Amino acid sequence: MLDDAGLQALREAARLSPDNLPLRQHLAGQLLAKGYLGEAEAEYRAALVLAPKDAGIMAGLAEAFVRQSAFGAALAALEPLLAAPGYPPKVGVLAARALLGEGDTARAGYRYHEAISRDPSVGDADLAARLSAPPAPPYGAPAPAASPYGAPAPPGQPYAAPAPPAGQAYAAPAPTPVDGATAEIERSRLNFADVAGMEAVKESLRVKLLLPIQQPDLFAAYGKRAGGGVLLYGPPGAGKTHLARAAAGELGASFVNVGLADILDMYIGSSERNLRATFELARRNRPCVLFFDEVDALAARRSDMRQAHTRQLVNQFLAELDGVDQNANEGVLVLAATNAPWYVDVAFRRPGRLDQPVFVPPPDPAARAAILRLLCRDKPLAEMDFDAVARVTDHFVGADLKGVVDRAVEVKLQQSISAGRPIPLSTPDLLAAAQSVRPTAVREWMATARNYVMHSNDSGAWDELMPWVKGKW
After folding, report:
1. What is the dihedral of CA 116, 119, 125, 127, to 10 degrees?
2. Global pTM?
3. Residue 432 backbone zone (phi > 0: left; psi -120 to 50: alpha; other: beta)
4. How far is residue 247 from each of residues 29, 226, 230, 256, 275, measured CA to CA in Å?
5. Are 198 and 367 in contact (CB under 8 A)?
6. Distances from the Cα of 26 to the Cαs of 36, 56, 60, 299, 456, in angstroms?
7. 231 touches 336 (CB < 8 A)
8. Span 126-172, pLDDT tens digits
9. Is pLDDT at 423 greater than 50 in this prediction?
């Protein structure tokens, strides 16, 4: 509740004239100056809807965030301004305060000294005293690239994650929270040994995503950077999410599993901010595997959309994949999964984004036997013939096979309870369970894929599916 008559009058005037941008911006500035930080933030947000690219409004919103200790949100608001050449020196000082609040003293020092080198009048004695900064770089020098631990890389050198000791996984830093990000950092205990079959898919992920971080010197010699994106697609239940977790565990990296609820919001502009905060969370915890499941809901074809704000979310996604500079997403491995790759906007397949679609096929008999072996490895077993079970589970994917094992275990538990002792699981148990389980959606998915491969493949994007849809499917 405002106790200032002048501010109350301004607020009433803004209520009666909600589209008056100068009035709303003046009200936000007055609220900020008098310490009404939450109210100032709300007014700046309202003004930003009227003028989304106004530098003064973005800077005011960022200052409101900084004074509320929402440093991550402040940096997200300042990011478009800092990316533009010749940004106002005051913006640099504000960014320095936010970076210092995040604990990134080195980059805060860079921003502060770069700003006062252009305009000494913006200096802040208290901020300067809190900074332990290197000497100011010459005006116009590029900002130092962030290392995986937040300290800047030496001038002129790109980000390069240190190689792990021989035989050890990469040791990721402790998770760093980011304001506005609802997704959480996880540590995956899986690795590629826990993924049965899919050797071609795993090898593709190794070369594209894992080896550049595990062997940075070798890849740097060829100009290849750590990071990138891969689009995993295939029928439901084929193991795309399981594979993403295993990739993170193989590297020993942070893992962020992004759900639709972490991004989508009913208010215009909030979904874009959530997406930006999620990418910032991954960048501050690199090396990191950032996984988007059902990505077609966030990256749908813009030509199919009727509302501008839904197209804006796709634009924001593309901008985050590109990063504000060439080093922004180094060490961030973006994996996206979808059952409907033909609905994903074609711009995502541009080089540097999700430029390598990787088909995750239904498992063949050898892979089905390996999956069954993994699913049964912690259960009491008699002598098993997993190959026999694999032969009668044609068209089954990993989720279906798990259903077979679960059903067989339920029957065996009932027998064990009656007998008063554990009775080992046997091959006939799995065969009987397989007869009562129907494969889920592989046939339907392949029928849809056949339509796109045969009739909508002028660009050759779905050539990888051709052997599958021309076969017995």
Report:
1. -50
2. 0.58
3. alpha
4. 48, 14, 12, 12, 22
5. yes
6. 14, 11, 11, 37, 54
7. yes
8. 888 887 544 444 434 444 444 333 333 443 344 444 444 444 444 44
9. yes
Would you tell me how many other CB atoms lie within 10 Å of the CB of residue 312?
A: 17
What the block records as the tokens of 312 is 């804006």
The angle subtended at Cα 58 by Cα 44 and Cα 309, nearest 5°, is 80
Whole-number Å distance between alpha carbons of 433 and 441: 19
Nearest C-alpha neighbor of 272 from the set 47, 40, 49, 14: 49
The residue to which tokens 């096929």 are assigned: 361
Residue ranges of domains in the chain, CATH in brackets: 5-130 (1.25.40.10), 185-359 (3.40.50.300), 365-435 (1.10.8.60)
CA dihedral 432, 436, 439, 444 (to 10 degrees): 150
Give the model confidence (pLDDT) of 377-415 as tens digits: 888 888 889 999 999 998 888 888 989 999 999 998 999
| Residue 187 Cα to chain centre, angstroms | 15
Residues 227, 247: Cα–Cα separation, whole Å:
13
